[in-house]
From TrEMBL:
<keyword id="KW-0889">Transcription antitermination</keyword>
<dbReference type="GO" id="GO:0006354">
    <property type="term" value="P:DNA-templated transcription elongation"/>
</dbReference>
<keyword id="KW-0805">Transcription regulation</keyword>
<dbReference type="InterPro" id="IPR043425">
    <property type="entry name" value="NusG-like"/>
</dbReference>
<dbReference type="GO" id="GO:0032784">
    <property type="term" value="P:regulation of DNA-templated transcription elongation"/>
</dbReference>
<dbReference type="Pfam" id="PF00467">
    <property type="entry name" value="KOW"/>
</dbReference>
<dbReference type="InterPro" id="IPR005824">
    <property type="entry name" value="KOW"/>
</dbReference>
<dbReference type="InterPro" id="IPR014722">
    <property type="entry name" value="Rib_uL2_dom2"/>
</dbReference>
<comment type="function">
    <text>Participates in transcription elongation, termination and antitermination.</text>
</comment>
<dbReference type="GO" id="GO:0006353">
    <property type="term" value="P:DNA-templated transcription termination"/>
</dbReference>
<dbReference type="GO" id="GO:0005829">
    <property type="term" value="C:cytosol"/>
</dbReference>
<dbReference type="GO" id="GO:0031564">
    <property type="term" value="P:transcription antitermination"/>
</dbReference>
<dbReference type="InterPro" id="IPR036735">
    <property type="entry name" value="NGN_dom_sf"/>
</dbReference>
<keyword id="KW-0804">Transcription</keyword>
<dbReference type="InterPro" id="IPR008991">
    <property type="entry name" value="Translation_prot_SH3-like_sf"/>
</dbReference>
<feature type="domain" description="NusG-like N-terminal">
    <location>
        <begin position="7"/>
        <end position="115"/>
    </location>
</feature>
<dbReference type="Pfam" id="PF02357">
    <property type="entry name" value="NusG"/>
</dbReference>
Length: 184
């Protein structure tokens, strides 16, 4: 079979649980140094953002929602399957450790669509921010700055926060998930 006639597809590698990042790092390095001859396009660890409340603080963490699995978009020609199967910390392919089967497009879309679901969850959440409330910026270049809410846009799930930067008041438009209530 000619290499050009084989198209890229998504495969699942079974990795030692907790070593998914090492597998991704190793394969990414192999992609970068060209040893896979362009037959591996990308490597993904299926993760999800989890919002937890610790005391009065909102903590956003990223965690693997399919522990022990790494997704690889590849063209399995020549020794590519053998190389991936023998990557450090990899146990083999799914569903059969020896014979890789590509994921169906619907499965790939469901896994990759997890990110969209997370954003939908944010849209559904009730955020009780009010004008005048003091909040701390948690993400972006102004993380750590504290300021007062000047405007709340419930529909867009955004707030306008005024912070002092070098002694001057600066208005920042931030998403609800980029700020947290300041305890005080």
């Amino acid at each position: 079979m000619a290499e050009a006639s084989v198209s890229m597809a998504w495969y699942v590698l079974r990795a030692i649980s907790g070593k998914e990042a090492k597998v991704k790092e190793y394969i990414d390095a192999e992609i970068k140094n060209g040893s896979l001859n362009g037959n591996v396009a990308q490597v993904l660890i299926p993760t999800e953002k989890v919002v937890q409340m610790r005391g009065n603080k909102r903590v956003v963490k990223e965690r693997s929602y399919l522990p022990g699995y790494v997704l690889v978009e590849a063209r399995l020609v020549g020794e590519i399957a053998h190389t991936l199967r023998n990557t450090p910390n990899v146990l083999g392919f799914l569903p059969d450790m020896k014979n890789p089967e590509p994921l169906r497009e619907a499965e790939v879309n469901r896994i990759l669509g997890k990110v969209d679901e997370i954003e939908d969850d944010v849209k559904d959440m009730e955020i009780p921010y009010v004008v005048g409330e003091v909040v701390k910026v948690t993400e972006g270049p102004f993380a750590g700055f504290t300021g007062a809410i000047e405007k709340v846009d419930e529909e867009k799930k955004k707030v306008t926060v005024t912070v002092k930067v070098f002694g001057r008041s600066t208005g920042l438009d931030l998403g609800f998930m980029q700020v947290e209530k300041e305890l005080g």
